[in-house]
Amino acid sequence: MTTTTRPDGVPADARAAAAAIVEGRTSLGIELGSTRIKACLVGEDPTQVLAVGSHEWENRFVDRVWTYTLDDIRAGLQAAYADLVADVQRRYDVTPTTFGAMGVSAMMHGYLAFDADGELLVPFRTWRNTSTGPAAAELSERFGFNIPQRWSIAHLYQAVIDEEPHVSAIRSFTTLAGYVHRLLTGRDVLGVGDASGMFPVDADGAGYDARLIEAFDGLVAERAPGLRAADLLPEVLPAGREAGRLTADGAALLDPSGALQAGVPLCPPEGDAGTGMVATNAVRPRTGNVSAGTSIFAMVVLERPLASAHHEIDVVTTPAGDPVAMVHCNNGASELAAWAGVFGRFAEAAGAGLSTDAVFEVLFREALDGEADAGGLLAYNHLAGEPVAGLAEGRPMVVRTPDSRLTLANLMRAQLYGVFGTLALGMRVLDGEGVELDRMYAHGGIFRTAGVAQRLLAGALDAPVAVGETASEGGAWGIAVLASYLGAADDVDLGRYLDEHVFTGADVTTVEPDPADVAGFAAYLDRYRAGLAAEAAAVDAL
């Protein structure tokens, strides 16, 4: 069968694909990202993308909390699944009623706390919130292990510190992926990668760190008597382990039409960082990946533990439980997209309307003509707070001196550099730790314009950057691959499975760092670091 790894690809043998769909010889992945919920259906060969679906959504800022409602989550799941089913029907004239396996992925971290009846106690607090500074600092000091503000345990401990009334009623808390998986299966479990962003896990990735569990329980003993972290956290499972089966209620939630049947096995739910690693084949030591969207983060699989804790670096795991250094930045490409919207509207007003993709293409190509250091311009993309940069809140800014060269090319290069700026600060810390990297894989929408963001990222990291065919749709496909892995885990580890069954002959383009870009970005980053004082002043003043 002729296959394709592109989300919009149509297999040459549609009849065989239709039969696989009807017979359930497929795997379904669903990922809840910051701005889109995506569904991806693959065949027995996981590189064969049979159909896709999506639903646009957006977080809400309510009472100074970034959140999504439970209705948003449920309606979004249904819409994305319905869009996938419609795509299947258009392509193959069949309707799926079952799958060989399924999996759910979502934004990592955050806080969904439930009482004994499974009722949500406070609105979902997403990874984007930066209200847990005191808790994160105290936990990091007590544990000797960096606990960032967005981690679930920081949210729980901040609620304890603030004496929030709901704390006494908590009987479980989880991530977004864990919540959706519970809706579909009734099981309170997490993949080890997602779990490692809730609470530190053991060195072997088999469960939570018992020493730190004990330390946390001692820390809250007086403020919240009876609160035991181990009683509240989801069960931890590695990739390849069955994590439950689709219940009748879960099937009805996902597909209100009634066509979807119960009984489909699900893989452990994972975070978007884990699916990004899978989608870029970056699960072995000395490999890494960058995922760029509303947020931007880098994952580097470690050969050995870091020498010390750093506030810029999370230590999490791959979906198989191997240690990973994570540089997570709350702000990614949203500000860049806003500028593209301004220029797109200008083109429209001038009578030369362009598609969104065409606007990005023009602006990104223009950036390549910019000076290597962006002509002295600085662009800060901080719409939200940015702990890596020491910012409690964000104020997007473009800053220049009187002798800076303000051109469209320099402005767009500065905007692209701005997407990578805070990330580069964290990656410099890993350089200081002696962490070695053979290749960085990249995925996300900004890499759709071939060779531009990829080249500038290579210069920013001073490392080769690879982009594959699935660069713009990696997450939902990544969790579909993890679902496919359920049938192979008894015979092969995850790294070998990806090498031998998924990425053999994959179409990957690698760009080496250009010395001029490396030097130019280094000069930009020096100014960027110094200019963070102006960002902090803007937060105070505006």
Account of the protein in words:
This protein is an alpha/beta fold. It has a domain at 109-174 and 199-232: 2-Layer Sandwich (Nucleotidyltransferase, domain 5), CATH 3.30.420. The protein has helices at residues 14-23, 70-92, 133-143, 152-161, 176-185, 192-195, 210-220, 229-232, 248-254, 272-279, 334-349, 356-367, 408-432, 453-461, 474-484, 494-502, 515-541; strands spanning 27-32, 36-42, 49-56, 60-62, 65-67, 101-106, 112-114, 172-174, 189-191, 235-237, 270-271, 287-292, 296-301, 314-317, 323-329, 378-380, 397-399, 439-444, 465-468, 508-511. The chain has a seven-stranded mixed beta sheet with strand order 14-15-13-12-18-19-20, sandwiched between helices. Strands 3-2-1-6-11 form a five-stranded mixed beta sheet. Helix 12 (356-367) packs across helix 13 and helix 13 (408-432) crosses helix 17 (515-541). It holds the Pfam family FGGY_C. Residues 289-485 form the Carbohydrate kinase FGGY C-terminal domain. Residues 28-254 form the Carbohydrate kinase FGGY N-terminal domain.
Tags for this entry?
disordered N terminus, seven-stranded mixed sheet, alpha/beta
Strands, helices and their partners?
Blueprint: H1 14-23, E1 27-32, E2 36-42, E3 49-56, E4 60-62, E5 65-67, H2 70-92, E6 101-106, E7 112-114, H3 133-143, H4 152-161, E8 172-174, H5 176-185, E9 189-191, H6 192-195, H7 210-220, H8 229-232, E10 235-237, H9 248-254, E11 270-271, H10 272-279, E12 287-292, E13 296-301, E14 314-317, E15 323-329, H11 334-349, H12 356-367, E16 378-380, E17 397-399, H13 408-432, E18 439-444, H14 453-461, E19 465-468, H15 474-484, H16 494-502, E20 508-511, H17 515-541
Parallel strand pairs: 1-6, 6-11, 9-10, 12-18, 18-19
Antiparallel strand pairs: 1-2, 2-3, 4-5, 7-8, 12-13, 13-15, 14-15, 16-17, 19-20
Helix pairs in contact: 3-4, 10-15, 11-12, 12-13, 13-14, 13-17, 14-17
Domain Carbohydrate kinase FGGY N-terminal: 28-254
Pfam families: FGGY_C, FGGY_N
Organism: Agromyces indicus
